Amino acid sequence: MNEVRRLFGAQSGRPQDWEWQSLAACRGTETATFYHPENERGPRRERREQIAKQFCAACPVVGQCLRWALETREPYGVWGGKTVEERAKLLSQRSA
After folding, report:
1. Please, which residues bridge with residue 79 across strands?
2. How far are the Cα atoms of 58, 70, 86, 96 from residue 78, in angstroms, in the given order?
3. Residue from 8, 3, 22 nearest 76 by CA
């Protein structure tokens, strides 16, 4: 994805909502790294998620990514170094 105008939210007219995506360590990476295929389970899923989290660990915008995923209740993939289940747990802790 080399064109910033194609990034999620670029059409919103609020650059602060999407600008962080252009700095993400995962930019240009195969999306399959971050989203599990149908019926993926067990060790295979854990390995893929660990690879995704390695990108996140070195990412300069991991905080903005996680914040966006939590605010929008992103239902899929690894965002901000957290899986869907890990984000759900964070959200439930916030509610408590």
Report:
1. 82
2. 14, 12, 9, 24
3. 8
